[in-house]
Amino acid sequence: MKPHSWLTTLLLLPCAHPALGAPPSALRQQELTRFVRQECGFCHGLHLTGGLGSPLTAAALAGKPREALEAAILYGRTGTAMPGWTPHLSEPDAVWIVNALLQGFPR
Amino acid sequence: MKPERIVGRVSSAPGSGKTSEPPPVGAKSFLGRPGERLERRIFSRRNPTSSATPSGYAIKPLTRPTVLLALAALALPSFAQDLRGTGDLGLVIERASGSVQLLDTTQKTALQRVEGLGDLSHASTVFSRDARYAYVFGRDGGLTKIDLLTGKIVKRVIQSGNSIGGAISQDGRIIAAANYTPGGVKFFDSETLALLSEIPARSEVTGALSKVVGLEDSTGNRFAFSLFEAGEIWLADLSADPKTPKVTRYPGIGKEPYDALVTGEGRWYVAGLFGEDGIAVLDLWHPERGVKRALPDYGRGDQKLPVYKMPHLETWAVAGNLAFIPGVGRHEVVLVDIATWQKVGTIPVAGQPVFVMADPTGRRLWVNFAFPHYDTVQVIDVESRQIVHTMKPGKAVLHMEFTPRGEHVWLSVRDENRIQIHDAASFAKIGEIPAQAPSGIFFSARAHRFGL
């Protein structure tokens, strides 16, 4: 085994998360919370009450299928201004975001 | 004498009756009692301990002439010392905390924070024609009038459910607010913020309400705006009576106009289209000629790249006959000949441009970018069309504002929680000011320009 392999493995672990489907770490969750508030907030509002983009409050999203919401985040929605956020967001990121939105997004 | 950072006596100014109201919750006044500052200064010089014991304000140690001088100074209205202009003032939006900070571009400092402005994501500001008052349009429909001199909220109304921006009439008497929910425009008396009239953005073609975008002021107390869903431009004329706007509707101007601008002389209203390529242009000198489509090769094109942040059009840089505009979803600045409205070139840049702003001399363009390149700012030399400088001020550079004559540029760096001040010629950083998640920076010189 080369001397660097353990270090390499450790460094690569976060990148491997999407493939493993592991939920985002606590740190990543913090990043995602900020990301949704700030970056998504440009169009959807800091309070996610909508703007040029549709509202993303729990009430507004109630009853919408999770898979469709996750796909909208990852691949965008054709015919709208919503871009796909792959590769900046992973599948577990999208799953976590949708879940958080449906429960009422954290501050 | 070193200029005071802040002013005192404001009651001497006409029409400032409102300013005598107590400061609202959260707005910390920087004013003392009349004469307080002067009093303290005189006594503290002679008797350094006196501030701790007010009763120790003894007249005794003072010489007779000093006393007379002091009494004379106190007797006079002391505004000579406290008066200041507002031409070098401005404000920065603190988007996450619902506050603004008042800024002094001469002292390069923040004067004070004004809180309680609601949801300020994507907030914008216009200024009264005397450049004393700032009108802040919040996302939650809040419209707040702030006195730059006293730092007080003079008036605040919640005028809709969801708003995107506003404008002020040529004569300064009418404030217009563009609303998403319910879609339309409302007009307010700039003095009192009393509602004058409103125009629901219900398309006669689709029968539905649209979000209003790209609300811009122009000559003759006219306001132009676009209907996002319906794809229309409307021109409201309030010159005869602000309570009964005359509206001219231009349907079918293109899919999803998302922002617009009025050129500096107030003549051209230009709307960018998100739903298709091209722009829609209305000549406000000749509104009877209707809206024309132009720049068919400007837009997202066939290869629709994701657009992480809608580019802003309000500050399309115009130098000579050339306009420099942000590419949509493309890492380029687009050159347009505004005599012919033809695309005449592109300049490759570091990311998707959000703002392409000419400095007030028109010689250079400053460009910031959408996620994920929003840590970068590039400067383009207009003559050579070359990038002459690239800097990385920090994560999330959201806005840039030039001092009125363009010697400095102020950058808001959201995730670093600061404003950076740079020399516009040497690019050197010459100062910074802490701010909470800063976004738009607005200087009062905007008071005297159309379409900002």
Number of helices of chain B: 3
Give a quick account of the main beta sheet of chain A: strands, pairing sense, barrel closure: none
Largest interface: A-B, 19 and 29 residues
- What would you report as the Rg of chain A, rounded to the nearest angstrom? 16 Å
Please explain how this structure is put together.
The complex is a heterodimer of chains A (107) and B (452). Chain A has helices at 5-20, 26-44, 58-61, 66-75, 91-102. With 107 residues, chain A is mostly helical. Chain A has one domain: Cytochrome Bc1 Complex, Chain D, domain 2 (Orthogonal Bundle), CATH 1.10.760. In chain A, helix 4 (66-75) crosses helix 5. Chain B is mainly β and 452 residues long. Among the domains of chain B are: 17-82, no CATH class; 159-294, Methylamine Dehydrogenase, Chain H, CATH 2.130.10.10. Chain B is 6% helix and 41% strand. In chain B, the strands form eight sheets. Chain B has a four-stranded antiparallel beta sheet with strand order 3-2-1-32, with no helix packed on it. In chain B, strands 4-5-6-7 form a four-stranded antiparallel beta sheet, with no helix packed on it. In chain B, 47% of the residues are buried. The model of chain B is unreliable at 1-60 (pLDDT under 50).
In short:
The complex is a heterodimer of chains A (about 110) and B (about 450). Chain A has about 110 residues and is mainly α. Helices cover about 55% and strands about 0% of the residues of chain A.
Looking at this protein, list some descriptive labels.
heterodimer; A: 107 residues; 5 helices; globular; disordered N terminus; B: mainly beta; Methylamine Dehydrogenase, Chain H; four-stranded antiparallel sheet; 6% helix; 41% strand
